[in-house]
Design a protein that fits this description.
Number of strands: 12
Order of helices and strands: HEEEEEEEEEEEE
CATH class: Mainly Beta
Helix content: under 10%
Distance between the termini: 24 Å
CATH superfamily: Glucose Permease (Domain IIA)
Structural class: mainly beta
CATH architecture: Distorted Sandwich
Shape: globular
Largest sheet: 10 strands, antiparallel
Number of helices: 1
CATH topology: Glucose Permease (Domain IIA)
Length: about 160
């Protein structure tokens, strides 16, 4: 099986009535190292994929309570709240090329909906809210709403 790096096209997704792009329908592994920065400094304690028999759509990064969480890339905050089951206090940022990043289990959310944030800008503080077993950040990257392994996009 040939694995090719992801090349942003800006078109071809099923979002807003568009068709799925060829890469998505062929099931290729898509990655782009360095596309995003690490949102928090810490150790990955739980990876992407199946965990205890259930899907885990992101990675968990351990950090002390109150550690700064930063935006992984420039974008607009599209959700700030605690209304998504299991995630606790969560921030969702929409980025160019139909990427979305999700930051869960926060102690405190600092960026409001509609705010345009820059890569590296403080958006939250690490916490233990929601369905969590300790202080950490749950971090997801989605492309066209489909979960992607964050390690394929981080430096």
């Amino acid at each position: 099986m040939e694995v090719k790096p992801y090349v942003p096209k800006g078109q071809g997704s099923w979002v807003k009535g568009q068709e799925k792009n060829k890469e998505e329908t062929e099931g290729k592994i898509i990655f782009e190292k360095g596309r995003f920065i690490w949102p928090v400094k810490g150790e990955v304690t739980s990876g992407f994929g199946i965990r205890n028999g259930q899907k885990h759509d992101g990675i968990d990064i351990s950090a002390l309570s109150g550690t700064d969480v930063v935006a992984a890339d420039d974008g607009e905050v599209i959700y700030n709240g605690d209304g998504m089951r299991g995630y606790g206090n969560i921030i969702i940022i929409q980025h160019k090329e139909k990427f979305v990043t999700i930051y869960g289990h926060n102690k405190e959310n600092l960026a409001n909906v509609g705010k345009n944030v820059k890569k590296g800008e403080l958006i939250a503080k690490v916490g233990n809210s929601g369905n969590s077993t300790g202080y950490h950040l749950h971090f997801e990257i989605r492309k066209d709403t489909k979960p992607r392994n964050p390690l394929f996009f981080l430096p």
